Amino acid sequence: MGPRIETERLLMRLPEMGDAANISTFLGDYDVAKNTARVPHPYPILAAEMWVMTTRASWQPGGNLSLTVEMDGEVVGGGGVFKRTPDADWEIGYWIGKPWWGRGLATELGQGLVDYARDTLGTRRVIAGYYTDNPASGRVLEKLGFQHAGDGVRAFSMARMGPADMHELSLTL
Fold first, then answer.
1. Among the four 43, 145, 166, 171, which has the fewest Cβ within 10 Å?
2. pLDDT for residue 65 is more than 90
3. Chain segment 96-155, per-residue pLDDT in tens
4. β-pair type (125-131, 4-6)
5. Which residues are 166's β-sheet partners?
């Protein structure tokens, strides 16, 4: 069954094969994909299906976590808590499909991920980042209490096929 995180409006859970079409459609939108590090554009359904299978196969308690986010039974986004290296801080990442932008879902999703990192993983510090041309994500992280930790960082984005300027933030729990 895997982990489940529930908030007021959202259910975060391991992805299922039936989620792949919505993931491909909404995460495959360039305006969404360009704000992630590891999502290519275009993002065909086969790639979403492979992500579902590898995510399900690799999940283990206490490890990196990638979740599908649903609202009212429909996939609207995704998110996760992960470490880039074994010694790194836990990091959160998230995306919301464009039809649901501006409804506060990213903030709700982010809070669920922060709570999971604190309560389940036992971490006392979480990091996150956002591309400078995505100030809405910066506002989400600031609402969650994250503080700027660094600017002028260049980070690769697969959808952009190159590096872009990024802000780094951290949150002490």
1. 145
2. yes
3. 999 999 999 999 999 999 999 999 999 999 999 999 999 999 999 999 999 999 777 899
4. unpaired
5. 131, 153
Decide if 77 contacts 93 (C-beta within 8 A).
Answer: no
Does the pTM exceed 0.85? yes
Give the amino acid at 151. D
Q: What is the CATH number of the domain that holds 138?
A: 3.40.630.30
Which tokens sit at 165?
């300027």
Record the tokens describing residue 52, joined without a space. 């579902």
Residue 103: Cβ within 10 Å count? 13
Q: Total domain count for the chain?
A: 1
**SS3 at position 164:** strand
The answer, yes or no, to whether residue 1 has pLDDT greater than 90, is no
Nearest to 147 by CA among 118, 172, 122: 172
